[in-house]
Amino acid sequence: ISLKKSFKYVIIGGGVAAGYAAREFVKQGLEPGELAIISKEAVAPYERPALSKGYLLPEGATRLPGFHVCVGSGGEKLLPEWYAEKGIVLLLSTEIVEADLHSKILTSATGGMFEFETLIIATGSRVIRLTEFGVQGDHAKNIFYLREISDADKLVEAIRAKKNGKVVIVGGGYIGLEVGAAIRINKFDVTMVFPEPWCMPRLFTKEIAAFYEGYYANEGVQMIKGTTAVGFDVDTNGEVKAVKLKDGRVLQADIVVVGVGAKPLIDLFKGQVGEEKGGIQTDGMFETDVPDVYAVGDVATFHMKLYDDMRRVEHVDHARKSAEHAVRAIRASEEGKCIEEYDYVPYSYSRAFDLSWTFYGDNVGDLLLFGDPNPASSQLKFGAAWIKDGRIVGAFLEGGTDEENKAIAKVARAQPSAEYLDTLKREGSSLHISM
Ligand code: FAD
User: Fold this and answer.
1) Distances (CA, A) of 170 to 135, 255, 402
2) Contact indicator for 335, 347 with CB cutoff of 8 Å
3) What band does 422 get if pLDDT is binned at 50, 70 and 90?
4) Mutate to test the pocket of ligand 1, among 316, 345, 351, 357 (most ligand atoms within 8 A of CB)
């Protein structure tokens, strides 16, 4: 008896991209039994960004089924029943441990075998652990990383158990900033530690960071910059008690949350598929160099038409759109047709406390700040533009309305001459921001 199950389409990974791909398959016309989604997680695809935001709040916290895809982009929630209704096989709590792209067979940890005609790789990223920087002891109790809902559940449990305690956040990126804010709202004493001179250095300039750092300070979150965690003190129960810093300081901690980056999960495919910039190399349709194998979301290094280079994007908007694009490309190719190349304007956002920023485009060149980046102001609204070779290539807005965010998205796509900013200033900005 063969234990092998065969599907026309298999998606490996059950995260954001998988959910949006499933919806697109259905839009394009899908027969029952044609598609299987295989996911290590125990729940149907959901909007991952909620885990560091609403999921951690003390009151009115976001919970499933409230944030299954595709609510994050204003669509209808795909409940587990939806997959069943559409005849999509959702194989949850199933980890693929072996992938043979040429014989087109995937094998799960429990020995299940899955055959595909077309594969979409949507395995996303894993967290980078402190041990990868040579820091030992991160397995102590109450030290957390955050990637999947099971991680968030453990953190929520600790937040309940350690009321009014001390929390140290290791890392000053967006995960650190969001989790730090959510835990502060839970009334913990929060200290963030990171080696860079300011927070969110991958996107923020010193000037932008100064606004957020000022706001966090006003909210009572401490930031220790320019040093790193090098170890932990642990009690006899194995619970973390303190974080030891490189500069010699020791920070008491009842809970530690580490957010020091992510790495695309591509080990399963090593040596079988082309790689670039740490991801799986694809064309503008997300097809890899292996026939019938596509890669989307965090794992894909694709041709970015707007900048004519190869990039990997670790943001939810791209996970959604790349998945939809790949499915459209797959269906078109089955009919001998071709669709347009993916034409993406990078977009990312974050929300913490009452703050909410959006960024479109590329953060290269010189920075021009506009509005009032004052964390104590009642308006909490300012923007920034990145100017390269006389053109606006990136635009950032804190506190923008939907319309204003759409406007900066257009700017990032059109890359107008930097003089455009003067025009806006003269004519009274369409962004309603005093510049
Ligand atoms: P994922 O959503 O990570 O899904 C991958 C799935 O594959 C997971 O379910 C995983 O379990 C599964 N998987 C992996 N390996 C295997 C295997 N071998 N077998 C079976 N299943 C497997 N982006 C923003 O733009 N804005 C934000 O505010 C934001 N907030 C975030 C907050 C958090 C806490 C996190 C973790 C990420 C956040 N992101 C945010 C990033 C965004 O969520 C990701 O870019 C997006 O989820 C990528 O989608 P994906 O489908 O490629 O991967």
Assistant:
1) 12, 11, 32
2) no
3) confident
4) 316
